[in-house]
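Team,

Forwarding the record for the chain on the shared tracking sheet. I've put the sequence and predicted structure together so nobody has to dig through attachments.
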Amino acid sequence: MYSTKMLFEKCKVTCFLVCKRAYRKPASNFLDQLRVYVRGGGGGQGQPKFGGKGGDGGCVYVEAVPNMTLQNLKRSNIKKRFIAGNGENSTKRMLQGQPGTDLTVRVPRGVCVTTDSGEVIGDLDVDGEKVVVANGGRGGCMATKWNGKKGEVRSVKLVLKLIADVGLVGFPNAGKSTFLKAVSRTDPKIAEYPFTTLRPQLGVVHYEDLRQISVADLPGLIEGAHMNRGMGHEFLRHIERTKLLLFMVDVHGFQLKESWPFRTAYETAVLLNKELELYKPELTGKPAILALNKIDKDGAEDRLQETLQSFNTDNYPGIPDDLIPELPIKFRDIVPISAAQGTGIQRLNDRIREVLDDELERQRVEMSSNKGIMMKL
């Protein structure tokens, strides 16, 4: 028989364990890369006596669809094996064998399908776009000596690259998550230490006239990100499909840890430029705005004026030669803000919209001009 005290202690332990499980931090459901096995169906055997042809094997397709995630895909097929149907054999009653059933792997919009070696098979940027990843084998016929051929077999990578209007670029703890929370309805993790954002987060800026602009908050860069240091390529691939780069820089400068050099706000912006250039030079041609954050803190006005003065020079003061960009980004605007206090946020939102609209109009005029040239030819 348990004493009253023993029963009480047992209940306390049980309640503690139940509460601990109930409040356990949920695992992240975000998955931006998945490797899968695909195999096309084998071709059916031909019928040489009657000249019958075996059915072709089915193909495996990857298609972009709405309301889909790579996490859902993984859950629906734990083994990550996708195999199309085999073609049917030719018979004397049915000389033409039935083709195998195609298989479609449904993925979210923004997936880039590559081989293991990195060769791009297809980019799926629009819902409904699809690409063949494994062809079915040819049905048996005279050309194959009536033997059905095996389907294509390989592994492919499904790499998600976020599609957003604006991509936030910055070193850790620059205030990107605070900015996203200030301008959208998302609730990103915010703290006073580097690498607060470990997974990309999407927010939406809502304007009074119901216009919406999507903003991607991405893991912070560190020097050497182009060589995949830190979260390097996990970050950089997500900004490839954004329309506008928003550089978020602490006006007081940045230092990752004591063993790393301190960088002023100006040096930070130049280094971010260099990292993008070394990873993919085309990124430096995207429209960009620089936001100098944390102007609410002591000494911010002096740091702000020093930074603006540095941008007005042409010789990169204080920057080592090997860190000077060969393809300098020309910021459309430099906007001082305090994401925590809300200072300058409205002006920054307005400039984001103006730059995006200007870029859209530029592209429209360019397409119209190219169309006119093609018609003359």
